[in-house]
Amino acid sequence: MKKxxxxxxxxxxxxxxxxxYELAIMHKNKLALTWLTxxxxxxxxxxxxxxxxTKNKAEYLIAESIDKKKLCIRLDHITEMRILS
Length: 85
Description:
This protein has 1 helix and 5 strands; from the N terminus they run αβββββ. It is mainly beta. A hairpin with a 4-residue loop joins strand 3 (58-65) and strand 4 (70-74). It is globular and about 30 Å long. The mean pLDDT is 91.
């Protein structure tokens, strides 16, 4: 059984990485992301970055998948990010 990681302490991301997310939002870039879900399932998808929000003392990337699904991904769960456009 996989452990739920949603309640683990948030590990702040570097200022440089945070700036990359902000720039992707400003430029409406498509991103190739890999992240771990709360159930520790490795997920890879191309998304459009919409916003970075803080809730419950953690930061989240608000994104939209290619098929228009809204995503809320905790920044410290993202393991890989590449700007596509």
